[in-house]
């Protein structure tokens, strides 16, 4: 028997009887951690009573089982899905210890299943064919649509049949570059149905970034749309795709087929260029195909999708997720972290271009037979009350978003919220970056009327699903803490040498074992997979995040410890932005750091040295920012360009980012030792240039 870690044993109990509901700390502005740590926000007794997990004791029992007998725990859950053939011989096998050989993780291997079948057909067979699967709310209020489970299956089958017709088969990659239309989950599910591997690219990425991903995974087909409206803007997506396809063709990767969904928008027809033979209009071909499509049964370990994400070095890497474990894990985490009930209406504001949209717009909720809202527009268009208007319109019960949106709406004032009823809301969720306690409180008190628990879910593209998350109803929350591990997850906090720390501590957050939803490799680069995630602390999965554990065992994520920054919940490597900057002919050298930003969480701060003879002008500054927008995407545009006649480097030429971070955040009295710099005088020069 493994025994429970001390931090799980010591979690606070819920009050018995009609206990206190919630005690709000007087410290609202200071955000002093000590105060936060003592601030317990309890779920109401009614909420706990009706919850899937009602008490720390119940959680502890389930958690203990999941750690002591993972095979038993997960196979019981997996048995609730349809398997054409049961896995064998083992529920899982893993080696995550690089000292013992290559990292290899398998869950439900030998099991034959299909995630699309489990999300759609299985729910329809259970009598939910007429239940709404997807609501769609367009950019303009009043634009909307919906599909029942049966209708969704029909549409998925038509597209699946079309894809098969054009030669896509099991194992082939399909790149999807679509905005948040129902066609986006439809395209993902259609790929899954026929065993094709989807690679969704967020439709805010530039042509360059899209091309990079196409070149890496060599898709048979690119699925896109002509345009998207976001707020008052119309974006010509097809033009971006055209450029990306030209760029990939130049690199020897010619894509023969581009399926274009015509999104009703105000864009004029003649603005969409058409390459005959390559470009096909979705609406012309897909509806002609049959609404029944046989399922391609796949092994639990067959790939389901690739999703590119940023690391601290080099190009974005293709995170590879497989079928069976991901299915079981996303469904189970969704169910417990949101305390899912069949009557819920669920809205996650994330785009399917990111992992949150994969696991918690498409797969997790649909596997549970949930009703999911897909929103195309911008959350503050036409005004900052839009989200709550939508909540009331669809009677949303579970609302899952990112701290950056919470902070942005908080700034607009409470009236935009309180003018709507929001009575339907039951559970709120947060993801993408640590949520600061004042934003947590506003979300809790104003949006949730002090009655909806907040699930602050900590996880990553690589983890497939939640690893540390509240289970609402089971234990009291602390504003800003992701609280405790999900079933089967053993988080450990280690020091630089990899020693596990106990009790109150802070250090690097690692996970001790595998869980069903963990990614299996980086596409085409298993070595980088091992080096990045399993070598830094041998024997563990290393998350790249820092974490503190308090006296009650609560986990407080403190942000990335590598050169990755989190901008509005979007993850980006500083190295990627630097290489976009130095691509500019006037840029000699660039160093990018993250700085605190009141809305975005982190802002992008770029130190730039220009080539000799070029003047430091506003025009150059603008063209540098434009370079990043076109190389990566608008969300990666630097917030600040700081002219740097020289960068602080060690004698061996390494840029000292520690110093740059201090200069960027104006903590000039904390520069530390600069005597090891090759030229200490550049520091003063930089400070002098701060507002040039
Ligand atoms: O730093 C952590 C932060 O987001 C990173 C993962 O980014 P990505 O792979 O793009 O996935 C985002 C959606 C899961 C993590 O390494 N992060 C995510 N959720 C939280 C968080 N930091 C603190 N609290 C969270 N709830």
TrEMBL record:
Keyword terms, alphabetized: ATP-binding, Ligase, Nucleotide-binding
Membrane-spanning residues: none
Any one GO molecular function term: AMP binding
Reactions it catalyzes: acetate + ATP + CoA = acetyl-CoA + AMP + diphosphate; (E)-4-coumarate + ATP + CoA = (E)-4-coumaroyl-CoA + AMP + diphosphate
AMP-dependent synthetase/ligase domain segment(s): 126-514
EC nos: 6.2.1.1
Occurrences of domain AMP-binding enzyme C-terminal (ranges): 576-654
Domain Acetyl-coenzyme A synthetase N-terminal stretches: 59-119
Keyword ATP-binding belongs to the record: yes
Any single biological process term in GO: acetyl-CoA biosynthetic process from acetate
EC category: ligase
Name of the protein in question: Acetyl-coenzyme A synthetase
């Amino acid at each position: 028997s493994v025994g429970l870690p001390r931090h799980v044993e010591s979690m606070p109990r819920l009050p018995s009887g009609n206990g206190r509901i919630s005690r709000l700390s007087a410290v609202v502005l200071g955000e002093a951690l000590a105060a936060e740590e003592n601030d317990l926000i309890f779920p109401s007794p009614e909420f706990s009573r009706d919850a899937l997990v009602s008490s720390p004791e119940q959680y502890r029992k389930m958690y203990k089982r999941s750690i002591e007998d993972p095979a038993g725990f997960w196979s019981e859950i997996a048995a609730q899905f349809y398997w054409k053939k049961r896995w064998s011989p083992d529920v899982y096998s893993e080696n995550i210890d690089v000292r013992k050989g290559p990292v290899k993780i398998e869950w439900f291997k030998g099991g034959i299943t299909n995630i699309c079948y489990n999300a759609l057909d299985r729910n329809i067979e259970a009598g939910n064919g007429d239940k709404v699967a997807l609501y769609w709310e367009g950019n303009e209020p009043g634009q909307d649509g919906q599909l029942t489970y049966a209708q969704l299956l029909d549409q998925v089958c038509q597209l699946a049949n079309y894809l098969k017709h054009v030669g896509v088969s099991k194992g082939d990659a399909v790149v999807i570059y679509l905005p948040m239309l129902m066609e986006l989950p439809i395209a993902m599910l259609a790929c899954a149905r026929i065993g094709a591997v989807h690679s969704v690219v967020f439709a805010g990425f530039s042509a360059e970034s899209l091309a990079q991903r196409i070149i890496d995974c060599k898709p048979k087909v690119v699925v896109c749309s002509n345009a998207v409206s976001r707020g008052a803007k119309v974006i010509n997506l097809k033009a971006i795709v055209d450029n990306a396809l030209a760029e990939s063709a130049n690199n020897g990767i010619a894509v023969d087929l581009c399926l274009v969904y015509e999104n009703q928008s105000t864009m004029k027809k003649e603005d969409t260029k058409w390459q005959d033979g390559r470009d096909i209009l979705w609406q012309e071909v897909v509806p002609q195909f049959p609404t029944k499509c046989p399922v391609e049964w796949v092994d639990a370990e067959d790939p389901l999708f690739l999703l590119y994400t940023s690391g601290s070095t080099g190009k974005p890497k293709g995170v590879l997720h497989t079928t069976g474990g991901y299915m079981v894990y996303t469904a189970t985490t969704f169910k417990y972290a949101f305390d899912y009930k069949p009557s819920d209406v669920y809205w996650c504001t994330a785009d399917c271009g990111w992992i949150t949209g994969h696991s918690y717009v498409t797969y997790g909720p649909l596997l549970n037979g949930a009703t999911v809202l897909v929103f195309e527009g911008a959350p503050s268009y036409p005004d900052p009350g839009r989200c709550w208007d939508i909540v009331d319109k669809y009677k949303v019960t579970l609302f899952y978003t990112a701290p950056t949106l919470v902070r942005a709406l908080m700034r607009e004032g409470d009236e935009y919220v309180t003018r709507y009823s929001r009575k339907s809301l039951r559970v709120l969720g947060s993801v993408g970056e640590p949520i600061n306690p004042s934003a947590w409180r506003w979300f809790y008190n104003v949006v949730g009327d002090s009655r909806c628990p907040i699930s602050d879910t900590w996880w990553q593209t690589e983890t497939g699903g939640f690893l540390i998350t509240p289970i609402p109803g089971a234990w009291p929350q602390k504003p800003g803490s992701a609280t405790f591990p999900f079933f089967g997850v053993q988080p450990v906090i280690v020091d630089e040498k990899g020693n596990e720390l106990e009790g109150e501590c802070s250090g690097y957050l690692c996970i001790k074992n595998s869980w069903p939803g963990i990614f299996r490799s980086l596409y085409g680069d298993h070595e980088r997979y091992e080096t990045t995630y399993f070598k830094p602390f041998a024997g563990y999965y290393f998350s790249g995040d820092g974490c503190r554990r308090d006296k009650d065992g609560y986990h407080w994520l403190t942000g990335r410890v590598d050169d990755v920054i989190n901008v509005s919940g979007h993850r980006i490597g500083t190295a990627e932005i630097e290489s976009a900057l130095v691509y500019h002919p006037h840029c000699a050298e660039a160093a990018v750091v993250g700085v605190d930003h009141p809305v975005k969480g982190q802002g992008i701060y770029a130190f730039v040295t220009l080539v000799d003879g070029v003047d430091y002008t506003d025009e150059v500054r603008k063209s540098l920012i434009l370079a990043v927008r076109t190389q990566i995407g608008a969300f990666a545009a630097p917030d600040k360009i700081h002219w740097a006649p020289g960068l602080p480097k060690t004698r061996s030429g390494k840029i000292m980012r520690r110093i740059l971070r201090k200069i960027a955040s104006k903590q000039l009295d904390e520069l530390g030792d600069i005597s090891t710099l090759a030229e200490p005088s550049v520091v003063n020069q930089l400070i002098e240039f701060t507002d040039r």
